[in-house]
Amino acid sequence: MSDLKSTALEATHIEMGAKMVPFAGYNMPVQYSGLKNEHHAVREAAGMFDVSHMGEFFVEGPDALPFLQKVTSNDVSKLLPGKIQYSCMPNEEGGIVDDLLVYCFSNEHFLLVVNASNMEKDWNHLMQYTAGFDVNMRNDSDAYSLLAVQGPKATEILQTLTGVDLAEIKYYHFVIGEMAGIADVIISATGYTGAGGFELYVFNQDAKKLWDAVMAAGEPHGLLPAGLGARDTLRLEMGMCLYGNDIDDTTSPLEAGLGWITKFTKDFVSSAKFAAQKEAGVSQKLVGFEMIDRGIPRHGYEIADLAGNVIGRVTSGTNSPTTGKNIGMGYVPVALAEEGSEFAVVIREKLIKAQVVKLPFVKK
Description:
The protein is of the alpha+beta class and 364 residues long. It is built from 8 helices and 19 strands. The chain starts with 9 loop residues before the first helix and ends in a 7-residue tail after the last strand.
């Protein structure tokens, strides 16, 4: 345990009775009152997650924009100050180094929010490409805390703590404003749950003050503290990719259904590879599926055709708390990627039937 990093709120989670687990090198809360309880709170009212393990890299300088155009797959030139973009960093082999959010403050000032488990890998990857660009990168991951307040009542709850008109902040936009008496909070209309809400970036010294203020404001509305367990079931119900499960260094964004963040209007790392792949067509695709027979698909389980030939693997799977169905995502040959196609998940050496469905599993 001694090697684990702590977030600024670790003591608070322990005090609140959270079950703590090692995650991406951090000691993190996996649940408080129970995964399903927390999951339903986010879908129906609100939940608050400590996601301070995420990484924050600032990219500044005259060449910040051309540099990011080179290293990310989406078109950064489309960003205006106050806008956010979902993107990925491809590697030279046509895989994905990480998926990330790009925040635009100006054409010379951006924030990249990366996955905790990839922080060092991402930093080293980006540094490889800085030569020839007048750009300065700063890793402020250890200075920031990040709270995600998610759910249909999130806006109503947070509005009591700020003078900023939260209803005016469109999805994938952000403002910098005061919240709970804390100045310069990055208030971002983003999240990893599909339930609406905000992600709030503050310096570590302000994290406890903000956490306590949101808990108090949220109590009458049914807000619960929520852990990584519920975050995973919520994102999976929305068909959102998890790095290390659904996408990794070997999967292409086109195979993962991320063609919409792969823009060929510019030259970027592996863009020629992806263009050729688009032209030829991918051989496998990431699909969402529901189990027809009884059984819960889990990460790493084999996917087989109905004759028993192994054709793919489950990348994510769970019992959906919202629908009650057993759901999963996995890579299958293109011929089996159509909605309604049937295949089997190998569970305890048995072929358990499943059917491809259109994502997301839970419609908003």
